[in-house]
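FAQ: What does the model actually see?

It sees only this:
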Amino acid sequence: MNPTALLLATFILSIVGLFAFIWSLRKGLFEAESSGARTIFSTGEIGHPEEPAADPSQRSALNEVSRTNLEADGTQTSQAELAAREVADRSSALPAFVLIGCAVVWLVVASFAGLLGSLKLHWPDLLTDYAWLSFGRLRTMHLNGVAYGWAPLGLLGIAIWMLPRLLRTQLLGGRLVVFGALLWNAALIAGMGGLAIGINAGMEWLEIPWQIGVLFAIGGMLVGLPMALMLTRRKVNHLYVSVWYMGAALFWFPTLYIVAKVPGVHFGVEQATMNWWFGHNVLGLFYTPLSLAAVYYFLPKVIGRPVRSYNLSLLGFWTLAFFYGQVGAHHLIGGPIPEWLITLSIVQSVMMIIPVLAFSVNQHMTLKGHFSALRHSPVLRFIFFGAVMYTLASVQGSFQALRTVNATTHFTHFTVAHAHLGMYGFVSMVIFGGVYFVMPRILNTAWPKPSLIAWHFWLVVAGFAVYMITLSIGGVLQGLVLLNPAREFMESVAVTMPWLQGRSIGGALMTLGHLVFALHVFMIIVRSGAFSLTERNTPATTAANPSLT
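And it is asked to produce this:
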């Protein structure tokens, strides 16, 4: 078949399907009222913010912002609805606690591996007597600690907590979730140990051997199974868009991972193509949907206002599904793969601007009139920052896929900065915000030191800004040197040295912020008496603590 015809047919099919979906929407994209957007609110909750991480003064100011910009209808939430929500929260408490607790541990481990690896880029003689502390192994351990430890466990913990609320029914299969989490962590411990001693499958994002990785697929399916069990018993007439994103992500990940790790199937050029098909899709079809699901839930709940355009949120979901599947091949520009495949990837990458703009415009319209709430809501600061970084990372990625831009940025530190813009600026910041919202609900305990939340936010934002700016500048300078045939390769290394030092400063600030975060999580666990959850977490406990209702 003519490659050009195949490319054109694929593109036209995507566009026709997209516009068929848009045409099928019953209301205008910017319609103000939508019953679907109100699904996450109980009777009388609209106009009343929910912010578990705020101190009393912040909560009072947040209420004032909501009253000024959106009048409540005066209806009170019934005790029956509050009791049902309490039961739903209790049903997911232990599985969510296990997942989030493990995620925080892996965040600390991955942070130290990343920081030490960064230091070795400009201090190459640091700890050279230990093979497992060499840069190659540390970098791989950092990647896998984030990609299979912190990010998925944190997102899955938040998703498991959200599901009973979104479906208004108790969590089913909680023991399966805990068992799946244990399998996942066992696989990660074994995989990280293997990477430390030099056992490596040799493909980025897929370094852990398939004999161990099969546990990820099984564990992921066990964690996702409760959603399938609960859908038949849901007590809502409409599935909120967050459920769409979570359901898609929980289906896509096992599919992606199993296809990528099947032994004895992928070789040579096909293996490289598959590698980046997985590497990009795990970001766009697993981490991204789960993160967007969290944004679409927490942002409206914190300000007490439904998402402005529910149809626009559905447009974002379907265009993500339409366009993301083939974007990974742009990492292989210049490689020995068909040109039509690379061109298809570039086209799909540029088309990703559609779901990104749909999300960004929707969030802006939802927050319009409520931006002052950012001063009073710790959760909203993290969520909003993550949402903005999603926009920047996605638009940057679309332009970075273009051959003219890729010629300068490919194989440079700029690519590393871009990866952190998405995986840290977007995904990790959303997880931070979600954890600050969820943990008080899981443990029925307020955060012990709200001031530490502010410290955490400003440390990671400052560190992230230093990291991104220095590494992006260094990467562009590196690329320009590499493109100049009159300059030696070592000049491209030397030009990055001051910028790599800036990267380590930024990484140190981020790591310090992570330690503050981990300490605060430990403090709330100790304060709550988490090992006696069944005794403490009762409706009476919540009623005695008004800040948690």
